[in-house]
């Protein structure tokens, strides 16, 4: 079994949203203090013994979260009026992959680092995870 390493960084943001196609209290405008984890995996370490520089990934994740911070997520076309935690995780994964293309290809045969998953917590006990392809 080949070696596999994983690193994780986290960031947070606060935002409002409502779920248009939901029947219950979440169909009304409300807010969350979201916590986001970005997981990177790979089997090849650099000369310094690192899979990836934490600070580089953290800076990128924070930049994406800053764009969502203190916004009404329903104003973003990409969420199609239903900014669920699942869609937010998918959006963040896409933004990370587009801004750091070296992480884009999941399951790389060369052992290089790849974005494995993005977790979005709406609360401490409610999380959605997206696995990029």
Could you describe the largest sheet, including whether it forms a barrel?
Answer: 4 strands, antiparallel
Mean pLDDT: 92
Rg is 16 Å
**N-to-C order of helices and strands:** EEHHEE
Shape label: elongated
What portion of residues is helical? 10-25%
End-to-end distance? 22 Å
Structural class: alpha+beta
Number of helices: 2
Spatial arrangement of strands, main beta sheet: 1-2-3-4
Total strand segments: 4
The share of residues in extended strands comes to 25-35%
Which ranges are low-confidence, i.e. pLDDT below 50, for 5 or more consecutive residues? none
Q: How would you describe this protein?
A:
There is one protein chain. The longest helix has 15 residues, at about 55-70. Helices cover about 25% and strands about 30% of the residues. The protein has a four-stranded antiparallel sheet, with helices on one face. It starts with a strand and ends with a strand. It has two helices and four strands, in the order ββααββ. The chain has helices at about 55-70, 85-100; strands at about 5-15, 30-40, 115-125, 125-130. With about 130 residues, it is an alpha+beta fold.
Task: Chart the SSEs and their pairings.
Elements: E1 5-17, E2 30-42, H1 54-68, H2 85-99, E3 114-123, E4 126-130
Antiparallel strand pairs: 1-2, 2-3, 3-4
Any descriptors?
four-stranded antiparallel β-sheet, 133 residues, 2 helices, alpha+beta, 23% helix
What can be said about this structure in brief?
The chain is of the alpha+beta class and 133 residues long. The chain has helices spanning 54-68, 85-99, and strands spanning 5-17, 30-42, 114-123, 126-130.
